């Protein structure tokens, strides 16, 4: 049985009902077709409201504790952190069977308080708090909740903690940053197996992976060309993916990553770490290769190809005309190019739509 969103299911119902009215299929065939699909649970309005409420409560507790933290005794500090965390879990578990969505809100509160507790406890014993380590420990404490709730919001919170941990380790290398990689693999597994291929979950995996690569390379102090090249390769892998479920999302994520990194790789400054004397040769070679790549994709992926061609034109225009013509004329021509590019993009989309019709 295939899981689809509620909107797709309603659309399918309407289309099948139309075919029944036209006597193309029978009522029994309509019911048999609908039985092959199941509506997957999404983020309902109630879930969003409860999640926001949980965040507000968590922030309120955090502010109340942080503003009076220095005035509390050591025993009171531990008591507040322990009791508030335990109480949230007890209330959540008590409501689990009869008020499931409300119970989830208390699980979210418990997750936030756990992260805050780690930070406050670290502040008691450390003069300098390593945010990367705190965030990594928080991510590890979230793993049981991720597995127990099988819930998109808590999974996204887990992804956010990995983002925070990666950013925290970006300045100084630590063994902790290497531990993030298996947690990213775990996040991908949860999204594929537990959440049944959530697109938002897949996006969070890609985002965390990009930030982790950039942070790792920065922490070991390698030239900027290395992380940019690695992220560019990741973009290529996403663009030419074979994920049926994420085909369009993955291709556009790859398009965005390739576009951003190629802007840097087409510049001479990026290649100076490789060879200062040959930087211009490397950047020009990459620009030529990227141009060939962009035009070669016109039949394979026309919309994305147009984006790449636009990026190429913009880069060349800025590089070779900014210092040669008056700034007013520069911006006028840039505006005309953007309008022309937009017209070409719209016409290509229209022609593509007509060819599919």
UniProtKB/TrEMBL annotation:
<feature type="transmembrane region" description="Helical">
    <location>
        <begin position="279"/>
        <end position="298"/>
    </location>
</feature>
<feature type="transmembrane region" description="Helical">
    <location>
        <begin position="200"/>
        <end position="218"/>
    </location>
</feature>
<feature type="transmembrane region" description="Helical">
    <location>
        <begin position="224"/>
        <end position="240"/>
    </location>
</feature>
<protein>
    <submittedName>
        <fullName>DUF2157 domain-containing protein</fullName>
    </submittedName>
</protein>
<feature type="transmembrane region" description="Helical">
    <location>
        <begin position="105"/>
        <end position="126"/>
    </location>
</feature>
<feature type="transmembrane region" description="Helical">
    <location>
        <begin position="78"/>
        <end position="99"/>
    </location>
</feature>
<feature type="domain" description="DUF2157">
    <location>
        <begin position="19"/>
        <end position="151"/>
    </location>
</feature>
<keyword id="KW-0472">Membrane</keyword>
<keyword id="KW-1133">Transmembrane helix</keyword>
<dbReference type="InterPro" id="IPR018677">
    <property type="entry name" value="DUF2157"/>
</dbReference>
<feature type="transmembrane region" description="Helical">
    <location>
        <begin position="169"/>
        <end position="188"/>
    </location>
</feature>
<dbReference type="Pfam" id="PF09925">
    <property type="entry name" value="DUF2157"/>
</dbReference>
<feature type="transmembrane region" description="Helical">
    <location>
        <begin position="46"/>
        <end position="66"/>
    </location>
</feature>
<keyword id="KW-0812">Transmembrane</keyword>
<feature type="transmembrane region" description="Helical">
    <location>
        <begin position="252"/>
        <end position="273"/>
    </location>
</feature>
<feature type="transmembrane region" description="Helical">
    <location>
        <begin position="328"/>
        <end position="345"/>
    </location>
</feature>
<feature type="transmembrane region" description="Helical">
    <location>
        <begin position="305"/>
        <end position="322"/>
    </location>
</feature>
<feature type="transmembrane region" description="Helical">
    <location>
        <begin position="138"/>
        <end position="163"/>
    </location>
</feature>
């Amino acid at each position: 049985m295939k899981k689809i969103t509620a909107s797709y299911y309603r659309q399918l119902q309407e289309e099948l009902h139309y075919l029944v009215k036209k006597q193309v299929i029978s009522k029994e065939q309509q019911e048999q077709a609908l039985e092959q699909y199941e509506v997957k649970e999404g983020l309902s309005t109630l879930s969003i409201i409860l999640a926001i409420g949980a965040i507000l409560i968590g922030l309120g507790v955090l502010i109340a504790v942080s503003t009076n933290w220095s005035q509390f005794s050591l025993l009171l500090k531990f008591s507040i952190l322990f009791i508030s965390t335990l109480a949230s879990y007890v209330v959540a578990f008590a409501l689990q069977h009869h008020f499931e969505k409300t119970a989830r809100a208390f699980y979210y509160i418990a997750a936030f308080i756990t992260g805050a507790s780690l930070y406050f406890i670290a502040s008691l014993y450390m003069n300098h708090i390593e945010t990367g380590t705190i965030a990594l420990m928080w991510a590890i404490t979230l793993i049981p909740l991720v597995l127990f709730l099988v819930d998109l919001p808590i999974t996204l919170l887990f992804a956010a903690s990995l983002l925070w941990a990666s950013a925290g380790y970006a300045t100084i290398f630590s063994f902790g940053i290497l531990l993030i990689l298996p947690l990213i693999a775990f996040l991908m597994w949860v999204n594929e197996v537990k959440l049944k291929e959530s697109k938002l979950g897949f996006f969070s995996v890609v985002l965390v992976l990009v930030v982790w690569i950039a942070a790792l390379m920065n922490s070991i102090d390698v030239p900027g060309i290395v992380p940019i090249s690695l992220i560019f390769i990741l973009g290529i892998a996403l663009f030419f993916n074979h994920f049926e479920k994420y085909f369009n999302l993955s291709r556009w994520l790859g398009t965005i990553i390739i576009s951003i990194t190629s802007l840097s790789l087409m510049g001479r400054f990026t290649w100076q770490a490789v060879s200062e004397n040959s930087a211009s040769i490397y950047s020009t070679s990459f620009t030529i290769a990227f141009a060939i790549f962009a035009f070669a994709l016109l039949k394979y992926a026309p919309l994305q190809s147009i984006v790449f061609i636009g990026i190429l034109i913009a880069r060349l225009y800025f590089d070779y005309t900014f210092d040669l013509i008056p700034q007013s004329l520069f911006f006028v021509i840039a505006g005309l190019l953007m309008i022309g590019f937009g017209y070409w993009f719209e016409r290509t989309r229209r022609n593509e739509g007509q060819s599919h019709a």
